[in-house]
Hints:
- This is Multifunctional fusion protein.
- Residues 181-646 form the Aldehyde dehydrogenase domain.
- Its EC number is 1.2.1.88.
- Keywords: NAD, Oxidoreductase, Proline metabolism.
- The chain is of the alpha/beta class.
- It has three domains: 9-122, no CATH class; 148-419 and 634-648, Aldehyde Dehydrogenase, Chain A, domain 1 (3-Layer(aba) Sandwich); 423-627, Aldehyde Dehydrogenase, Chain A, domain 2.
- A seven-stranded mixed sheet has the order 21-24-25-20-19-27-28, with helices on both faces. Strands 16-15-14-17-18 form a five-stranded parallel sheet, sandwiched between helices. It has a three-stranded antiparallel sheet with strand order 3-4-5.
- Helix 5 packs across helix 8, helix 6 (202-221) crosses helix 12 and helix 8 crosses helix 9.
- The longest helix is centred in the middle third of the chain and has 27 residues, at 258-284.
- Residues 1-30, 46-61, 65-74 and 87-122 have low confidence and may be disordered.
Amino acid sequence: MEAHQQPDPLLEGDAVYGGELVTSADPCHPANLIPELCRQFYQLGWVTGTGGGISIRDGDSVYIAPSGVQKERVLPADLFVLALQTRQAMLRPLQTSAVRAARLGLSARSASPEKHYSSSGIRVPQLATFKLPEIQNEPTRDYLPGSAEQAQLMAAVEELGSKTHHIPLVINGKEVRVGNTQQQVNPGNKSQVLCTYENAGPKEVEEAIEGALAAKSMWEAMPIYDRQAIFLRAADLVATKYRYKLMAASMLGQGKNIWQAEIDAATESVDFLRFNVRYSSEIYAQQPPFSAPGVWNRVEYRPLEGFVYAVSPFNFTAIGVNLAAAPALMGNTVLWKPSNSAVLSNYIAYDIMREAGVPDGVMQFVPGDAAAMTKQVFEHPEFASLHFTGSTVVFKHMWRQIAENIDRYKSYPRIVGETGGKNYHLVHPSANLDNAVNCTIRGAFEFQGQKCSACSRLYVPKSMWGDFRDKLVAGTESIQLGPVTDPKNFMGPVINQAAYDKITNYIEYARNSGDCEIIAGGKYSDKDGFYIRPTIVLTTDPYHKLMKEEIFGPVLTVYVYDDAEFDATIDTVGKTTPYGLTGAVFAEDRLAAVHASTRLLNTAGNFYINDKCTGAVVGQQPFGGSRASGTNDKPGSPALLQRFVSPRSIKENMLSISGYTYPSNQ
């Protein structure tokens, strides 16, 4: 086939397609999308001119000749077809398809172009309603001493910790180094620098935003099944190939022991990725139940206009995965700003999703100064949504910033946030004592109390307190604290110096308070790492500072109530704090459990009966709270994904009307 070269299609709206000149008079033809793709190639640095010609030879290669450049840029036709087909500026061999090329008529004339396109993007024919693979929770592994899985995990820990890694910004698929770096250290060994990472400045943030917007139209045009396939593959990569590496990064970087890393970095990350796929199909299937005669009603779920800003915390690798992946699955493009204390694990997770096929520009990885970046993002008119997990104070500040900029935005931004908690265990006199004690130790002290759901206040009846105290203190004092490289340690370090200082200040406040007694722990040291012994404070004031304020560390405050005052204590539980995240009641008396559950209705978005107030499982207990604890959009459920789509109702009338009057006008 003879090559054809058309000058400046970017300016004239013309292109050469399959050796045949096609102009904008044929809007259904895929060639009319080529100029837009060239603009995006130019924005991404793949071509160096703003004009030029395109030709396709023998159905095998695409030639891009930017204006003023002598040498053509040659791209394999199937790669170009993929970009054309999905309008994604992304050229990855793993995502190519000869079949798709044939459908678009770009391979050796063996197939003709199908008219399934629009001026805003190509609509690939949907030839079936696909059935998803069965979605189940990822099984947890036990990592018993001497097991192969423990040996493999600890080998990954040793390998990952053997050197200092460098984490770049990733903008439009390119690793960007700006020379402004910070360090992430091992909180259990302050002398060990796990990684250095680049800090995005205003220029990089702007490039990330513009790149995300450039990739958006192509990503949202990709059929949902293809997006689902990418995230299902990411889940499988986490569950298998990268399981131990991601866990190792969470252990060394965030101070998690083996079990905490397993239920976070491994199983919960996988569960979010898989169950979100299932929930996305459920959402797309939500269609009007009725259409009047001669009418077809339907609903489609559009991605938000603009970009999503995902700001993730240090304490759960899986939360970072979900904050970025959930909106992306629904067709949005995302700026992911990871916690400075979790850059290593978050980057590994990000890289896994790229390997799974997330196109360049769809997720931009931009560590940096949170305040400066957030201010810049919130001033952009295309800001569409905040997806946040972190402190209540920061979230409220962000909300105010968004409100101040509301007139800038194209649409009202969706604000989705999960924040702090002051979570409780309420023990009824009928409770199983051993169960309540052990659940409380786990709920208060696993992962050093750094879960937003951690138990921070405990209410125990006076009739049980003697035995309860003995077992609670004995169990707490028996906890092994130390480096996460020793599998026997139940607790590791808190995350950093700021957290260490805040928590120890609360301990000293209690020590010097006349209505408090430290009955376990109270010791700490930051000589080598940020280690704090699990601490129990007994108070006679149910409204004490330590009963009201979030500490986010291994400090449990206990109030002992008179058995006859159970109802009054329920009221106290509900009035003490502004939060509403998690809570639990322990009672063998069914009526007492139901009574407490009913009276405490609005005190917890996740409520537990005879179980600890931590450990929500994706697909089983959707997580989130209200009041000062967040917007309660329930990650791990379809409700969250609904926040990242904008439904459009469509009514198609099959019959024509013969006049404009109604029967009542006669």
